[in-house]
Amino acid sequence: MLVSLVRAALVVEALLIAALAAGLCARGWSLPAAIAAPVGLALGVRLAIVCFSMAVAHLTRSPRDAAEQLGPAGTLALVLGEWRAMLANNLFYLPLENLAVPADPPRGLPAEVAVLVVHGYFSNRGILRGVLRSLSARGATPVYTFNFHGLFRPIDELAEQLAMQVDLIVRPAGAKAVVIVAHSMGGLVARAYLARHGSGSVARLVTIASPHHGTRLARLGMGTNARQMREGSEFLAALRRREGAAGPGCPVTSIYSVHDNLVSPQATSRLPWARNVALRGVGHVDILLDRRLHALVADEVRAAGVAFVPRA
User: Fold this and answer.
1) Which residue range forms the structural domain that includes residue 161?
2) Pairing of strands 252-257, 275-279
3) Which of 119, 140, 144, 156 has the most Cβ atoms closer than 10 angstroms to its Cβ?
C-alpha cells in the first residue's frame, strides 16, 4: 500500500511539474529554465519540510553539552544531510524498495544468530538500505528484513507481525536466535514484542533513533501508532509497566542523534536499562546512512554472535 501511495504521489508531482513547465514555456521561458523552476520548487518544498522539523526539534531539544553544539557550518551540514537522505528516501528507497535493497535470503536458514532489521513509521524496508548494505559489505549473515502491513495499525498489532517473522527465522532447523535492529517506531514495536513474548528468541535489541518516551512531532502524525508515540501516551506507560524496572531479558542498545529532527526532546531515546549511544550532526533519516552508525551496528550484532563471512 505504501509503495503504491508514494508512486502515485510522485506521478502526480511529475504531471504537475510538466504542466507548470509547459505553462512557463508558453510564457516565453526557455525549456531548461521552465523545467528547472518547478523541479526546484519541488525540491524546495522538501527542504522546507526538513527545516520546519529541524526548527521544532531545536525548540523542544534536550539540554546539550558544549561538545554537542554544531555552529552555523555544522547546522547547515545537518540540514543538507537530512535533506539529501529525505530525497533519496522519497524518490528511490520507498517507491523502488526492490531495487534499493536485495531480496531476503530464505527464512529459516541454519545459523547461530541471525539479524532482523525493522523499519519504522510510514516507511518500508527500502529506508534500511544503508544499514543493509553495510552489514552485507562486512559479511554479516544471514540478514533479514520485512514490511509491516497496515500503515497506521496499533503498535501491539505490529509487534505480532514481528513475532511471526521471528518465528519464521528461529525454528528447529534455522537460527537459534535473532538480533533485532530497529529504526524509529520499529524500536517500540520490538519492545512491545519482547514485553509480550519474552526474549527467548532474541539475542540482542539495537534501536536506532527510537522515541522510547514519545516525541513532540508525533502530534502531527496520522493513525493509532502515531498517537501511541506521543509523550505521556497510555501505550508508552503500559509498555513500561509490562517491561518492569529491569527491561527485557536481553541486552539492549539505543543509538540516537542529539540532533534528531523527528524525535524530540532527543533524550527520549535513552532507556535507563540500556546502553545508550549518542551521535551528533545527523538527522532522523540521515542517521541510517551514517558510517558511525554502521560501525556501531556491526559491533553490536557481532558481539551477539552473528557470523561474519569475509567477502571474496
Assistant:
1) 99-308
2) parallel
3) 119
Dihedral pair phi/psi, residue 37, rounded to 5°: -65, -55
From the list 255, 250, 288, the residue with the least C-alpha distance to 270 is 255
- Residue 154 neighbours by CB distance under 10 Å: 16
For residue 122, the SS3 value is coil
Report the chain's C-alpha Rg in angstroms: 20
Sorted by sequence, the CB contacts under 8 Å of residue 128 that are 6+ apart come out as 101, 117, 119, 145, 183, 288
Is 160 within a domain? Answer: yes
What pLDDT, on a 0 to 100 scale, did the predictor assign at position 53?
98
- Round to whole Å and give the CA distance between 257 and 263: 9
Domain membership flag for residue 120: yes
Question: 297: exposed, middle or buried (C-beta count within 10 Å: 0-12, 13-18, 19+)?
Answer: buried
Please give the model's pTM, rounded to 2 decimal places: 0.97
Per-residue model confidence as pLDDT tens digits over 115-167: 999 999 999 999 999 999 999 999 999 999 999 999 899 999 999 999 999 99
Q: Which amino acid is at 291?
A: R
Q: Give the cell for residue 250.
A: 536481553
d(CA 186, CA 240): 16
Count of domains for the chain: 1
CATH code assigned at 300: 3.40.50.1820
Confidence of residue 310 (pLDDT cuts 50, 70, 90): confident
**From CA 272, how far away is CA 2, in angstroms rounded?**
34
What is the 8-class DSSP label of residue 120? -
Structure-block grid coordinates of residue 171: 525454528
Euclidean distance between CA atoms 290 and 18, whole angstroms: 35
The whole-angstrom separation of Cα 220 and Cα 103 is 33
